[in-house]
Amino acid sequence: MKLLIWIGILVGGTVGGWLGGLLDHGNWLGGWSILLSTVGSIVGIIAGYNLGKNVG
Question: Nearest 10 degrees: CA dihedral of 38, 40, 46, 47?
Answer without folding.
Answer: -160
